[in-house]
Specification:
Elements (H helix, E strand, L loop, with lengths): L36 H11 L6 E4 L6 E4 L7 H8 L15 E2 L6 E2 L6 E2 L5 H7 L9 E2 L3 H10 L1 H7 L3 H16 L7 E7 L2 E9 L1 H11 L3 E2 L4 E2 H5 L9 H9 L10 E5 L51 E2 L2 E2 H26 L31 H26 L1 H16 L7 E2 L2 H5 L5 H13 L4 E8 L5 E4 L8 E4 L4 H15 L2 E4 L2 E4 H4 L24 H5 L2 E2 L4 E3 L1 H8 L26 H4 E2 L11 E8 L6 H20 L6 E6 L2 H12 L1 H18 L9 H4 L2 H24 L4 E2 H28 L8 H30 L5 H37 L22 H14 L4 H20 L17 H12 L2 E9 L8 H5 L12 H9 L2 H4 L8 H9 L7 E3 L15 E3 L5 H4 L4 H13 L11 H4 L3 E3 L6 E11 L4 H22 L3 E4 L3 H4 L5 H23 L4 H24 L6 H27 L5 H31 L5 H33 L5 H11 L3 H7 L1
Parallel strand pairs: 8-11, 14-25
Antiparallel strand pairs: 1-2, 3-4, 5-6, 7-8, 9-10, 12-13, 15-23, 15-24, 16-17, 18-19, 20-21, 22-23, 26-30, 26-31, 27-28, 29-30
Helix pairs in contact: 6-7, 7-9, 10-29, 11-26, 11-27, 11-45, 12-24, 12-27, 22-24, 22-43, 24-25, 24-27, 25-26, 25-27, 25-42, 25-43, 26-27, 26-40, 26-42, 27-42, 28-43, 29-41, 29-44, 32-38, 40-41, 40-42, 41-42, 41-44, 42-43, 42-44, 43-44
């Protein structure tokens, strides 16, 4: 061989792998005749104009050297030439060597290839193992090999994960650099004196395609992107074999010192035989024992792409919703049966039995008309009567005592209330959403605590979403060819400068905390601190280093702009971690904080990956979050407050900015609560005024101020408030924190229960006739003995139901249930003691004709006829007889059963979740942020797969269970998450996880210059340091090329986690993984670690719930595969976990409450089981109908609505229990008459006590500024009151008239004996 071409210094920007080599040397091609100088001139004259070339005589006779000297063609022309599209000069063939560094190529024409220096054998074996056999003569020397190694460090770090990929890449460069057969496939096209300044490299299409195919799937774990996105000069989707190699050999990449023009062909071209060496597919192992690439880095190794399971089809019958069809059929069947039974009963009226569906009150065969004196009560009836008598005697005696000793009772009550309420000084209100909605024992809470304790709490954020009112799209025309690129108006450069001004102004904000100035740098996330203290700012402007001058940087002349911010942007969105773009600007894309800014985090409103179509800019300022550090947390809160104030006052006519800080939601909820205080106060004032006025029974205008009971009404209200404050105080003593739900809801609940009882006591007394020789205290005691069991029944049922509701795992529901149960019971105790005493005093005042409030003033006595109240007369004379008419009762049943059927069909259609926009006031700035967040963002929250402490990373088995590279298990953590990302629409996992372990393996490879230490001290030596004492961490031996295990693994891991990425080593783990690995004390081992990826975009509550479900399913599968605990954690999991079990929790809470009401009702009604069933059925119907209302009124099921449902269960007792008990003690002869009497006596009190009181207060809530008040309080409270009143005052009496419990014979006999010879006996017989 006479001469060859050798490149001395090679600096390609792309490509890497683990094994290198070359195929055996190829047979030299047949030599062609060397052109003479004259022949060369003739060729040039024929093909080029004289001013474009010069010919210089060679050093030897007959040789020719040519330098094609173009008069500086424009950039577009230069690009065509470098791409191989312009004319080529193929005359210089026998150039001995390209000596020296690549930036200065020397022509040396002496002798054949030279033997390699033995000292470089190891280096040759490392880089080009195919040339390593003895005393090999090559066209490269030791210096050139060292230069090649340094130039290939970046590709090595990213592509060596796949041995076949990197082997093929090294083959490409080894052939160009060292092959003794360069003349077969390398052609010098341009020389300058003794320097070669351009060459052609003939490469086989088969080889280039195979090399690309082996590398196309290789991942860059720290960046969650494919490695070719960082090494191809464009997004990996747009990269192919041709443009990747062209990019590596083009001077536009900023590293190649002269153009190498690749020519792709599988056949001989112009006498050159393309280099077409053997390649390895990514599914193949290498001859040196390296295994095939992993599935993550080689799609072909994965087998078929996973297919998500098909979604369950909706349950339908005849193409319609199955529940709707079933309930329609059921309802129509019920109507048919009802009609048939009605017709049969009508025809057989004379002989209908007591238990017939429609009872004729005049039926002579009715049980109620039998001679009860001869009847023999059952044992259960006798037991019930005795229990009833015991309660009557007990409450009568207690009522008489309270009336006789009012001051003792009132004073004692006041003292106890004050003592209990004094606990409010220890009151602590919880507004932390985590404490409100997540139980400390819940899985999400425990996982959050584990994550926070090992890695620190999830960072806080302040975020801007910027849009513009400018419309339209403008085209950008790349100077170097290609189709126009449309850019949205948000990318107008003037607007970008204005956005940058805003960003810089925020960076310079200074807040004050305890006299200290707090700036962004004091609280921001700076991953490279203390070496780089720049804050992490996820902004598209960080592609321009947050600099106006870099944003304005452009290259051009008076006629054309060759590169500007458009071209830089288009490059950076495809390679955000690049330190040098491929445009003529050569500006970095890496953010000033030392990390990449991924476009899906900084842009919004684009389609697919066309980031130039973005319509919104997203700027995120991650802030440090501190665990149990109130001082530093206070500083962050102070800066966030300053940020919010600044943004509220910011104005720019060219842009619209939606913003939010971490504290924004909590601040707005607090502001909302304060702003609604007036609305709540007005609501309560209306109820108070109504209660004060409605309690009085006015007989005449003259006696208005005597008969009114304003003072008694106010006292009753104070008793209600005292019971609430006592409950709050008692639990505050115990250290139980309050919530806003407790403060806002419990007064409403206790007022409903308490006012109802007040109306029952007062109105029963007003309607009662004092018996002969009966004193006032005896009368009130007797009245209390009649009504207190009913009050005790409702209050105890509600108390037990609420206390059992405290078994809920949801803190907000548990706290509400505890406070509500105790408040209701205290209210009952105060009503039968303090209120009864005050009632006795008020009755004495009225008997003495003293004025209400001004009790010192006394009117003259006049004779007045006692009459019933208007409402009572209406219920007794009009309402009760009307709804219990025989023709109307079936219609009422049909309507209510229809409502029930509709509600049952709607139960499974109620949405689960809470739209966070509802928790904000109507005028909140956060609403705009939520709207833009849903409309523009394309990426969900980060999700961390946390491997708990205990996995042995120093063993191969432990490593294989987690990693995703060569040799790792196909069911490893990284591999399973990667597989899940392939079906992201189903799994909600968007990207391949970042893997510290895989990057550590790449970082520590002996071929890499990343891992070095000072030989003298053992300290870490960064790749950018030039020092002869720095040596590689591991030897270049077969053992050194293996993964580190044992002590060696732990020796270098801390170095990796402290290494900052730099141009010579992009795998440093400080920025990406400093917090991902929890090292044990003294670096003795690896504790907990995490592997991070992202969820897909999540907009509505169902999206977040599905993401939580899928994350946990995936983590559970991983745990089972690797036999070690792994859990998924994201910042929103702790809030949405409640919705995984909200349906079960709702059913459990309501069923437990119903069961408690049933048991208590059974006992307190004298063991009348059927009466308890009536109460439970009616309450259950109310609850089911509440779900129908929720579906109709778009009220979702969540903790707030669950609290309201539990409350509605309690309030429903008030609507039902009094009616049922009045029915059970009625002495009338038939069910219809007993139902009518019960409705007349108790219906008016229930209607005036609960319905009218609550209705007036609820209507005011409709004017609240708070959406959550409008939806969950106004709508649900209104539904509770209306449904409760409708069922208690309409449906329940009708149902009792049909299937009510039979009369308790023991109670009838006892009543006859008790009232024998009294006026009451006459009244009962009317």
């Amino acid at each position: 061989m006479q001469s060859d071409l050798v490149a001395d210094q090679h600096q390609p920007p792309g490509g890497s792998s683990e094994r290198r080599g070359s195929s055996p040397p190829r047979k030299p091609a047949q030599r062609k005749k060397k052109p003479s100088t004259r022949e060369a001139k003739v060729y040039l004259q024929r093909h080029f104009t004289p001013d474009l070339w010069t010919v210089r005589n060679g050093a030897r006779s007959g040789d020719a050297r040519f330098t094609r000297t173009l008069p500086h063609p424009p950039p577009r022309r230069r690009r065509l030439l470098s791409m191989g599209r312009g004319p080529k000069l193929h005359l210089v063939r026998r150039v001995r060597r390209l000596a020296g560094p690549w930036k200065k190529i020397q022509l040396q024409l002496h002798g054949p290839p030279q033997p390699l220096d033995p000292d470089a054998y190891e280096l040759l074996k490392e880089l080009c193992p195919g040339y390593d056999y003895g005393n090999r003569s090559l066209c490269c020397d030791a210096d050139q090999l060292r230069t090649l190694k340094g130039s290939l460090q970046l590709p090595l770090q990213f592509l060596s994960r796949c041995p076949a990929c990197f082997y093929n890449l090294m083959n490409l460069f080894c052939e160009l650099t060292c092959s003794p057969h360069q003349s077969q496939f390398v052609n010098t096209t341009k020389v300058n004196g003794t320097n070669v300044v351009a060459v052609q490299y003939y490469i086989g299409k088969t080889f280039s395609s195979a090399m690309y195919n082996a590398c196309s799937d290789v991942q860059a774990p720290s960046s969650n992107v494919k490695a070719l996105s960082l090494l191809c000069g464009r997004d990996a989707r747009d990269c192919n074999a041709t443009n990747w190699i062209q990019y590596m050999f083009s001077t536009s990449n900023g590293q190649a010192p002269f153009p190498i023009d690749p020519v792709f062909s599988d056949v001989e071209v112009s006498g050159f035989t393309p280099m077409n060496n053997k390649t390895y597919a990514c599914t193949e192992g290498l001859e040196d024992g390296s295994g095939p690439c992993s599935c993550q880095d080689c799609t072909k190794a994965c087998g078929p792409k996973p297919v998500p399971p098909a979604a369950l089809p909706p349950w339908t019958i005849f193409g319609y919703d199955a529940m709707n069809v079933i309930m329609w059929i059921s309802y129509l069947s019920f109507l048919l049966i009802l009609s048939v039974l009605g017709a049969l009963c009508y025809r057989r009226r004379p002989i209908i039995s007591e238990y017939g569906p429609i009872l004729d009150s005049n039926n002579p065969l009715s049980l109620n008309d039998d001679d009860l004196s001869q009847a023999s009560p059952s044992c259960c009836e006798t037991l019930g009567e005795r229990f009833e008598s015991f309660l009557r005697v007990l409450f009568s005696s207690w009522g008489s005592f309270c009336v006789r000793n009012p001051f003792v009772v009132v004073l004692g009550s006041v003292v106890l209330v004050v003592a209990f309420s004094f606990g409010l000084r220890y009151m602590h209100i919880t507004t932390d959403p985590v404490e409100l909605w997540s139980s400390p024992a819940s899985q999400a809470r425990q996982e959050k605590n584990y994550f926070d304790s090992h890695f620190g709490p999830f960072f806080r954020t302040a975020q801007l979403i910027i849009t513009t009112s400018r419309n339209g799209t403008y085209p950008y025309s790349p100077y170097f060819g290609g189709s126009d690129v449309p850019f949205k108006a948000i990318f107008d450069k003037d607007l970008l400068h204005q956005v940058l001004d805003l960003q810089l102004a925020i960076e310079n904000l200074a807040a004050t905390y305890e006299g200290q100035s707090v700036t962004l740098k004091d609280i921001c996330v700076a991953p490279l601190a203390p070496y780089n203290n720049n804050c992490t700012i996820l902004s598209v402007l960080n592609y321009f280093q947050n600099s106006h001058s870099v944003l304005d940087h452009s290259i051009g002349d008076d006629f054309y702009i060759y590169a500007d911010f458009h071209s830089h942007f288009l490059y950076c969105v495809s390679a955000p971690a690049s330190l040098n773009d491929t445009t003529l600007l050569h500006d970095p894309c890496l953010g000033t904080f030392g990390g990449p800014v991924f476009p899906w985090l900084a842009l919004g409103g684009y389609d697919d990956t066309n980031y130039n179509n973005a319509t919104a800019l997203v700027i995120t300022f991650p802030l440090n979050n501190y665990l149990n550090d109130s001082v530093r947390t206070g500083k962050v809160l102070a800066w966030e407050k300053e940020f919010i104030g600044f943004m509220k006052n910011f104005s720019n006519s060219n842009m619209t900015v939606a913003f939010s800080a971490e504290r924004s939601v909590e601040d707005e909820i607090e502001r909302e609560s304060n702003s609604d205080i007036n609305t709540i106060l007005i609501s309560y004032i209306i109820m108070f005024v109504y209660i004060s006025l409605a309690l009085g029974h006015i007989h005449s205008l003259r006696m208005l101020l005597v008969d009114s009971k304003i003072s008694l009404g106010i006292a009753g209200i104070l008793i209600v408030l005292g019971s609430v404050s006592s409950s709050l105080g008692i639990f505050s003593y115990a250290g139980v924190p309050l919530t806003l739900i407790v403060i806002e809801v419990i007064p409403f609940l206790v007022l409903a229960v308490g006012v109802d009882n007040i109306f029952i006591i007062v109105q029963t007394l007003q309607r009662d006739e004092r018996l002969q020789n009966e004193e006032l205290h005896q009368q009130i005691g007797r009245v209390l003995g009649d009504v207190a069991p009913s009050m005790f029944l409702s209050s105890l049922s509600e108390t037990v139901a609420f206390f059992l509701g405290a078994l809920s795992n949801m803190p907000a529901v548990r706290t509400f249930s505890l406070f509500a149960g105790l408040a209701i019971f205290i209210d009952f105790l105060l009503q039968i003691s303090c209120f009864v005493s005050l009632l006795g005093l008020d009755a004495r005042r009225q008997e003495r004709n003293r004025l209400d409030i001004c009790c010192c003033v006394r009117l003259s006595e006049i004779e007045e006829t006692k009459s019933d109240g208007v409402l009572y007369r209406f219920f007794k004379k009009v309402y009760a007889p009307l709804i219990l008419r025989e023709w109307l009762r079936p219609l009422i049943v049909a309507v209510f059963v229809g409502m029930l059927s509709f509600s049952i069909a709607a139960v499974n259609k109620v949405q689960i979740g809470l739209d966070q926009k509802l928790s904000m006031p109507d005028d909140s700035y956060v609403l705009d942020y939520f709207k833009n967040l849903s409309e523009y963002l394309h990426t969900g929250a980060p999700v961390y797969f946390v491997v708990e402490d205990g996995l042995d990373y120093t063993s191969l088995d432990g490593q294989n269970a987690v990693c995703g590279g060569v040799g790792c298990s196909n069911n490893s953590l990284v591999q399973q998450v990667y597989t899940a990302s392939l079906i992201s629409n189903y799994t909600t996992i968007a990207y391949t996880p970042s893997s510290w372990l895989d990057d550590y393996f790449d970082w520590i490879k002996p071929q890499s210059t990343c891992c070095r230490f000072y030989n003298s001290t053992g300290g870490f030596c960064n790749a950018s340091v030039i020092n002869t004492t720095c040596v590689s961490c591991r030897p270049l031996t077969p053992a050194g090329k293996e993964r580190p295990v044992g002590d060696e693994f732990m020796r270098f891991l801390p170095m990796f986690l402290s290494d900052n990425p730099n141009p010579k080593c992009g795998k440093g783990g400080h920025a990406a993984y400093a917090t991902a690995v929890d090292l044990k004390p003294n670096n003795s081992g690896v504790g907990a670690t995490y592997f991070m990826t992202y969820h897909t975009i999540l907009k509505e509550s169902p999206d977040f719930i599905d993401a939580l479900k899928m994350g946990r399913i995936l983590a559970r599968n991983i745990s089972q595969s690797i036999n070690h605990t792994v859990f998924a954690y994201s910042v929103f999991y702790v809030f949405y976990e409640q919705y995984l079990t909200i349906a079960y929790d709702t059913a459990l809470n309501l069923c437990v409450s119903l069961a408690a009401i049933f048991v208590v009702t059974t006992v307190l009604l004298g063991f009348e089981l059927w009466s308890a069933v009536m109460v439970s059925i009616t309450i259950a119907m109310i609850l089911v109908n509440m779900f129908g209302v929720m579906w109709l009124w778009d009220i979702s099921l969540n903790a707030v609505s669950l609290v309201n449902l539990v409350m509605s269960c309690g309030i429903s007792v008030e609507f039902c229990s009094h009616i049922v008990r009045a029915f059970s003690v009625s002495m009338k002869s038939s069910r219809a008459e007993r139902a009518e009497e019960a409705l007349a006596h108790m219906g008016s009190s229930v209607f005036s006590g609960i319905t009218l009181t609550k209705f007036g207060g609820i209507v005011i809530l409709a004017f609240s500024k708070s959406q959550i008040f409008q939806v969950f309080y106004f709508r649900m409270y209104l539904a509770i009151v209306l449904l409760g009143a409708a069922h208690g005052l309409i449906f329940l009496p009708v149902m009792l008239s049909y299937i009510g419990p039979p009369m308790n014979k023991a109670k009838v006999l006892a009543a006859n004996r008790r009232y024998a010879g009294t006026e009451k006996e006459r009244l009962l017989k009317r």
